[in-house]
Amino acid sequence: MNFDLAEVRELITLLNKTDITELELEGEGYRLILRKSAPVVAAAVAAPMVPATKTPATQGTQPTLLEVKAPMVGTFYRATAPESPPFVDLNDRVRVGQTVCIIEAMKLMNNIEAEVSGRVVEVLVENGQPVEFGQVLMRLEPENAS
């Protein structure tokens, strides 16, 4: 059995509408495994939200930073094309739902969106670098942090 791109997208959409975190289909000559990130945030193909986790501040004067993590394994891209400007750069302000990068997985481009509004303080991955599920991509200082 061969899956076409539309069928895989439909499966991902259906998976994201449920509480199921992993779907595995296996048959003669094929195996398809779909996983989504923590239930706090859905990792959909169209517009996944990225889980943000708190990084403890080392000093009382530093704000708590939120980590933007990869919701899937793939290739990290800062822009839609090599000649295009990056979605975000250091010190850029982002808003909830704004695309901050793309992860290419199985020839699908997945927009990774900010879960919080704030300022980009670190970008930890180079353009074109492979990333693992849960890997920290960047850190944000939330708007309400002081």
Can you walk through the features of this model?
This protein is mainly β and about 150 residues long. About 10% of the residues lie in helices and about 40% in strands. The longest helix has 12 residues, at about 5-15. The protein is elongated and about 50 Å long.
What brief labels describe this structure?
5-stranded antiparallel sheet, mainly beta, 4-stranded antiparallel sheet, elongated, single chain
* N-to-C CA distance: 55 Å
- Assembly classification: single chain
Q: What gyration radius follows from the Cα positions, in whole Å? A: 16 Å
Which structural class do you get from the secondary structure elements? mainly beta
Which descriptor suits the 3D outline?
elongated
Order of strands, widest sheet: 3-4-11-9-6
Largest sheet: 5 strands, antiparallel
Beta-strand percentage range: 35-45%
Number of helices: 1
Mean pLDDT: 79
